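Design a sequence for this backbone.
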């Protein structure tokens, strides 16, 4: 079983006795059975210091993966991880670490840019809202030969305590000839959640990577808007769980990409 650390390295709200800015390193595992804290003056906040701290924290066993949610600390932690042969993963799913930071009353909110339109050469032919019973998701998609498939174990409906009959809402994009290209682009973007935003026009915003935001669709049609509201209501009932499916057409024979996603502010920090 892989040993995974959740790590943050950032300016501390605290200062030392001389008023110098301190940087604080926090390391924990997913259930916080392991926690490690170290601070250094800003002048020492570099990958070499981090490398030595990782060795101290590990004692005998280094982690297989380090997960990082903060863009500002990603490059330093990645460099230190490279020094020790540790894979570093940029992900928003660091629930234990964010809970710890909040207990310490440290900010966890990351500034996000305005959403950017999806590149025109990728957009599919049409899209629609849909839902799948929670109990059918694994059988329907996990065993299929889908080129791009993202079903994280921690998001499996059974692991979220969802009844098999609960409808999991989602969005299906019919990509036509662009279907596989769109799925590959989304794979690179690393989808996190897909949210309905009201406005003029209304829109579907894809949260991706650590801070990226993409406009997947815009609409003003009253029927589509009503469906979007139902989509958001169903997310409330599914503990934020939802999906994004890309397929060439509506035949249901072939799929290009499937992502199981979760709204950050419902069940994840």
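Sequence:
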């Amino acid at each position: 079983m892989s040993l995974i650390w959740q790590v943050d390295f950032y300016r501390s709200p605290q200062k030392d006795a001389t008023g110098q800015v301190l940087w604080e390193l926090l390391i924990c595992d997913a259930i916080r059975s392991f926690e490690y804290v170290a601070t250094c003056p800003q002048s020492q906040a570099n990958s070499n210091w981090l490398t030595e701290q990782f060795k101290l924290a590990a004692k005998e066993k280094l982690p297989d993966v380090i997960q990082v949610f903060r863009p500002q600390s990603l490059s330093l932690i990645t460099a230190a991880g490279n020094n020790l042969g540790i894979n570093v993963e940029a992900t928003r799913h660091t629930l234990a670490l964010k809970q710890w930071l909040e207990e310490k009353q440290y900010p966890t909110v990351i500034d996000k840019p305005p959403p950017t339109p999806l590149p025109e050469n990728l957009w599919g032919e049409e899209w629609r809202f849909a839902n799948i019973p929670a109990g059918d998701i694994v059988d329907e998609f996990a065993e299929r030969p889908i080129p791009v498939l993202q079903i994280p174990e921690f998001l499996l409906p059974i692991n979220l305590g969802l009844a098999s009959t609960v409808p999991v809402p989602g969005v299906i994009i019919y990509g036509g000839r662009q279907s596989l290209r769109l799925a590959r682009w989304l794979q690179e973007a690393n989808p996190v959640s897909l949210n309905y935003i009201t406005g003029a026009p209304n829109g579907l915003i894809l949260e991706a990577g650590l801070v990226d935001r993409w406009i997947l669709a815009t609409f003003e049609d009253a029927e589509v808007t009503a469906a979007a509201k139902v989509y958001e209501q169903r997310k409330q009932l599914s503990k934020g769980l939802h999906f994004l499916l890309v397929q060439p057409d509506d035949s249901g024979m072939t799929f290009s990409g499937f992502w199981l996603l979760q709204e950050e502010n419902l069940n994840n920090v």
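Residues 222-237 form the longest helix (16 residues).
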